[in-house]
Amino acid sequence: MSGRLRTIVVGATGYSGRELIRLLVNHKNFELVGAFSSRSAEPLSLAEIHPQLTGLIDLDCQPFDEATTARINPQLIFLATPNEFSHEVVPSLLETGATIVDLSGAFRLRDAALYPEYYGFEHTRPDLLQKAVYGLTEFSRKELSNAKLIANPGCYATSILMPLIPLVKAGFLSDLQPIICDAKSGVTGAGKTPAATTHFVEVSESFRAYNLFKHRHTPEIAQGLGVPNNSNTLIFTPHLLPINRGILSTVYLKLDDQVTRENVLSTWRNAFNNAPLVRVFAGTQMPEIKFVAGSSFCDIGCTIDRKTGQAIIVSAIDNLLKGAASQALQNANAAFGLAGEEGLR
Amino acid sequence: MSGRLRTIVVGATGYSGRELIRLLVNHKNFELVGAFSSRSAEPLSLAEIHPQLTGLIDLDCQPFDEATTARINPQLIFLATPNEFSHEVVPSLLETGATIVDLSGAFRLRDAALYPEYYGFEHTRPDLLQKAVYGLTEFSRKELSNAKLIANPGCYATSILMPLIPLVKAGFLSDLQPIICDAKSGVTGAGKTPAATTHFVEVSESFRAYNLFKHRHTPEIAQGLGVPNNSNTLIFTPHLLPINRGILSTVYLKLDDQVTRENVLSTWRNAFNNAPLVRVFAGTQMPEIKFVAGSSFCDIGCTIDRKTGQAIIVSAIDNLLKGAASQALQNANAAFGLAGEEGLR
Amino acid sequence: MSGRLRTIVVGATGYSGRELIRLLVNHKNFELVGAFSSRSAEPLSLAEIHPQLTGLIDLDCQPFDEATTARINPQLIFLATPNEFSHEVVPSLLETGATIVDLSGAFRLRDAALYPEYYGFEHTRPDLLQKAVYGLTEFSRKELSNAKLIANPGCYATSILMPLIPLVKAGFLSDLQPIICDAKSGVTGAGKTPAATTHFVEVSESFRAYNLFKHRHTPEIAQGLGVPNNSNTLIFTPHLLPINRGILSTVYLKLDDQVTRENVLSTWRNAFNNAPLVRVFAGTQMPEIKFVAGSSFCDIGCTIDRKTGQAIIVSAIDNLLKGAASQALQNANAAFGLAGEEGLR
Amino acid sequence: MSGRLRTIVVGATGYSGRELIRLLVNHKNFELVGAFSSRSAEPLSLAEIHPQLTGLIDLDCQPFDEATTARINPQLIFLATPNEFSHEVVPSLLETGATIVDLSGAFRLRDAALYPEYYGFEHTRPDLLQKAVYGLTEFSRKELSNAKLIANPGCYATSILMPLIPLVKAGFLSDLQPIICDAKSGVTGAGKTPAATTHFVEVSESFRAYNLFKHRHTPEIAQGLGVPNNSNTLIFTPHLLPINRGILSTVYLKLDDQVTRENVLSTWRNAFNNAPLVRVFAGTQMPEIKFVAGSSFCDIGCTIDRKTGQAIIVSAIDNLLKGAASQALQNANAAFGLAGEEGLR
Predict the structure, then answer these.
(1) Could you give the CA distance from residue D307 to residue B231 in angstroms, rounded to a whole number?
(2) Which of B51, B290, B345 sits opposite C285 (nearest CB)?
(3) Residue B1 scores a pLDDT above 80
């Protein structure tokens, strides 16, 4: 690959967009040539929108329109935009020949029939759902190579699928009881638009569960694990933590009788042998949010009660990084044949 | 006084309104007979608006209108409403004969000319500005007795005036340099309406100054101290703390050469002799927000550099209580001849 | 009952001790006549230890010794002390004839054999374990009447047992899978002694699970539910929230096929008919920590997936109040025949 | 310079040490060859001490002793150690010929006579106080070149000196009133050792002033500004914010009558022309902690009341970066002739 790839970010005003821009500023192979908003009608400097970026980049964020985008002729497009917006613009953007990494949920579920219930709209391009590569990078490197449409996984789904997929593949799980995923996320996961639920006073010194039995990441996790999407098989409960960044997931599952903690750890070590962003916690220390906040790591650990085979998996990621922007970059790296962690340390 | 006084709260959906209701529920002499909103168009149970109140009170919050209010025939009205709303409804509510405690700024400044600059509207009732009693309770008991319109002080102003008024009265202040008030408030002070500035992620793990040289509590403090409203005399800078409740003010002032810390402490002790809600910190421990959060106390302390007469005053209140609802109740108590702290412990 | 009961608090320097004192100050029937520390060697005023209490109470906290206690001749003793300390002093304190409410875990488990594993010491008084009343007030009023030794439940255990006991009694639970209790607590639950794990920087902006499969509240919950203490039946995982106060427990359980949400709600309503401190959330709003922080309430709610019988129970308490001091007072009220909520609103 | 410079960090277990290590891992010219603790007696892997560093570096932290240090033969030594420790070891470490950047206060004050009062010990090497370069990098590049002993400035002092030094040099300040520095810091500034004052519950939802009139950064600021160390000239009050990282300083000063905001801004622009880590806020947006947290920037802004010449300066830094580790690296860069910002973006 000669020269840096012309790259744009659409959805540059949100938190994921901002993190993408921070990462792109230091990326050797991608050159940020445009930043767009799916909402605002006027151009604003990125430093006005995100004063954090002052002195790091001197670029305006433009209202998105397809003609401007076409003129810029990007080779790589990141969409950090609402589901409906991505659903709408992806088909025509694909025609430009650019590689698209979509951080929304618009192309994550292969089954179009799930969209009305979980996303509130009819999906008009079931064909693209089949073509899109679900970019949980560590498990999809082959499909990602030269992919044109990459569906970047949900933050909660990432935190749960990373440790569980190798265990499912290894056939370790008993089907006697549901996999129960009790996940807790910081507030950046709820986006930047002010709302009663993200008001400081409503969040601080409090804690709450939400979307019981019906969060949209549930079918995404079921799809990723290859299990039926019902609560006898899989339960996922998100909670809102009074912190800015990070997800910790506590997952309860029953393993087959002979499976030991060492089996789990070695299965993980094999699965993540070439995955420098996954850290397996093998001692008594379990993952905590503070160890991953601000980093691209996914930390995973487990404890097993040998008498019963009951296991508890704990995983931690930064929801804006491994749960969004970093994984998007990993996916773009993989699509263009770069090392998985380029620009992510 | 026979029987409990029929009392209503207008502005029951906000934080100050909620605190007023909590306090009224336990008040021996006031009976909460109505709750109103200046904004919402439909009745909602108070427990739906403020789930904290579930099981404490069974009352609907109604859209405010004057006819309904008249039917209820309240003897005591608390307005925890926007400035413009209070400005508009106070004149006709006064005609009902009820005592009004207005928690907004609409009747705090005696000089009507300040309203356009500091509040953004022309004041149409300068006559009422002269009649309204500024209810910094500990200093206004006499005027409060039988008062009909009470302007409840601003939260920042309360935290600064409480310790300073006795020192000004004692003639302790040198006029060589401005009184500099560096105040820090929790987010409830910014109200409950969602905004970019109160989004959890924008506030948490951060801190900022705002409204430099132009916060509307500046002329209120100047008026309370009886000093000119200019920055060679008085500077007030508010800051936003990543906490829910509480104000800590650090005030810098130069005292006359002979004034000692013991002079200040004894002046305070005299001034607050009959004021059980004011606590004078006389040791090395200075006031902190955690000592007053959730209480009606105002804590005050000071340190003086004897070599120079430079003094630092530290005061702390809960902005929703002594800075709003508790002081409103103190004022209502005083208006009706009840003990100042009834219902406030 | 004539006159107020002479009451002392041992362990007055900690958070639970402080909350007990705040509640006792306003209690009609109990008079706080002594405060003691199990640790400090010198008397200190309560206001120096807890500046929050300045102006509320004027009492010294004394180093505990039995002779001084005997002289005071208390009728009611609250022990907010370490497990080992309670274990040691309860036998002789019982001989004074006073009623003892022990907030530690020293007398909670009926099976003495569990103490070495879960509490790290041999229990020397298995006879007292049989006699002690486990004071989950709403379920133990009869045994509490005239009780002499009351074991105040653990904070986590309270949050989980309150909603679950009525469901177990009703026979609603399937035994196909473990009851999984994923609980999250604020930092006051970890006590006041400074430690690496309670350092602000280690807790703030983070979140972690701890004591997986081995927290001492596990056998307490099993005992309260009347189920075996093994992980095929019951799993309890505590987590540390970056907040001061409050516990939210998310409990996963499988109900028998026919059980509906309405069955659960009406079972709760019956069970808590005369329990004003329990609030059943019957709408879409689930309990959240902010609704109970600073109050004595226990809020409970549930969601059921009718297709599968999988249920999620959410409960919230203030760990220092219903999880400690308020329940201690409820228990003392019950022991002396007073209304359960005296002094708790 | 050929090859990377052999570099060690002493005081690797603390927060500043950890940040230094993170920065060194990515530094092109410095190679971290040793990490030491001034306290712990046994070697521990850095990843055990700081799980954040897992996968980033594979190095043990050794108990410090001079013999081991000599064997390693470092060319660059960072001391992130207590004042007394630095005071003790610097003289002999200097003899090894290495360049020392001392992050403690042991060599910051030129006047040895101040040490007993402000640091609690007699300084035994006044000669080294004269030789040490005070490394406020942007103002000391010339003296830093080839410096052997660099005193890294205090975090508060940095936040205040950065904006003020250019204004003092420009002769803008009136001497009619003291420069009043009201500064607020996150808790990492208090160090990692657990203490009552850093317990989560004591800090969270609270705020307090401390060390009124006697913080040790006061004489450091006076020295940096070249003004007398008395409270008629300079007052500095630190406060503790319930956040992890960041300092915001609000500085009140009176400027000479003719000085305008544009004068201040252009003076800053000139002073920081070649200082990419200083960002001058020239619009209505003032610096906030969130804009600098996690970065090496120092943000500065000001507002002036033209009628009176009263000015408010607001500055923000990350106390662990520009206030400690990043500035240490800037200083090391300057000592070895590297670009000021190498390794700091």
Answers:
(1) 8
(2) B51
(3) no
Q: What is the mean pLDDT of residues D142-161?
A: 98
- The pLDDT, as a whole number, for residue C3 is 81
**Distance, CA of A17 to CA of A8 (rounded, Å):** 10
Contact between chains at C242 and D205 (C-beta distance less than 8 A): no
User: Which residues of D are known to be catalytic?
Assistant: 155
Q: How far apart are the C-alpha atoms of B298 and C89, rounded to whole Å?
A: 40
**pLDDT tens for residues C91-146?**
999 999 999 999 999 999 999 999 999 999 999 999 999 999 999 999 999 999 99
User: Average pLDDT of D27-33?
Assistant: 96
Residue with tokens 């250019």: D166
Q: What is the pLDDT of residue C314?
A: 98
Judged against a pLDDT cut of 90, whether residue C271 lies above it is answered with yes
Rounded-to-integer distance, Cα B26 and Cα C125, Å: 44
CA-CA distance, A319 to A155, in Å (whole number)? Answer: 5
C48 contact residues in B (CB cutoff 8 A): 285
CB under 8 Å to D213, separation ≥6 — which residues? Answer: B303, B305, B310, B312, D231, D235
Q: Which of B120, B126, B80 is nearest to B107 (CA)?
A: B126
Residue ranges of A 224-283 with Cβ closer than 8 A to chain B: 242-244
**Cα B313 to Cα A233: distance, rounded to the nearest angstrom:** 62
Diameter over CA atoms, chain A: 64
Alpha-carbon span A90 to C292, nearest angstrom = 46
Question: For residue B29, how many other CB atoms are within 10 A of its CB?
Answer: 18
Q: What is the pLDDT of residue D2?
A: 53
Is C208 in contact with A178 (Cβ distance < 8 A)? no
Q: Is C136 helix (H, G, I), strand (E, B) or coil?
A: coil
Of A21, A326, A332, whose CA–CA distance to A159 is shortest?
A: A326
* Residue of chain A whose alpha carbon sits nearest to that of D53: A291
**What is the C-alpha separation between C170 and A339, in angstroms, rounded?**
59
Both structure tokens of C194: 């400074």
Torsion-angle region of residue B292: left (phi > 0), alpha (psi -120 to 50) or beta?
alpha
Q: Is the dihedral of CA A329, A334, A340, A343 positive or negative?
A: negative
Give the 3-state secondary structure of residue C279.
Answer: strand
Q: Do A52 and D279 touch (CB under 8 A)?
A: no
Residue of D205, D215, D233, D286 to mutate, interface with B, max B Cβ within 10 Å: D205
Cβ atoms of B279 and C54 within 8 Å: the answer is yes
Pairwise CA distance, residues C314 & B48, whole Å: 18
How are the residues of chain C apportioned to helix, strand and coil, as percentages rounded to the nearest 5? 35, 25, 40
Whole-model pTM: value is: 0.97
Q: For residue A101, which of A297, A316, A318, A334 has the smallest C-alpha distance?
A: A334
Determine the Cα–Cα distance for residues C86 and D118; give it in Å rounded to an integer.
45
Q: Which two tokens stand for residue D133?
A: 């370069």
What is the β-pairing status of strands D44-45 and D60-63? antiparallel
For residue A121, how many other CB atoms are within 10 A of its CB? 13
Distance of alpha carbon A184 from alpha carbon C184, whole angstroms: 10
Tokens of B118: 């500091």
Place of tokens 């089996």: A263
pLDDT in tens, C171-218: 999 989 999 999 999 999 999 999 999 999 999 999 999 999 999 999
C-alpha angle C248-C249-C251 in degrees, rounded to nearest 5: 155
Are the C-beta atoms of D299 and D275 separated by less than 8 Å?
Answer: no
Contact across the interface for A201 and B198, Cβ inside 8 Å: yes
D134-137 long-range contacts (CB < 8 A, ≥24 apart) are D134/D108, D134/D223, D134/D224, D135/D101, D135/D327, D135/D328, D135/D330, D135/D331, D135/D334, D136/D161, D136/D162, D136/D165, D136/D224, D136/D327, D137/D327, D137/D330, D137/D331, D137/D334, D137/D340
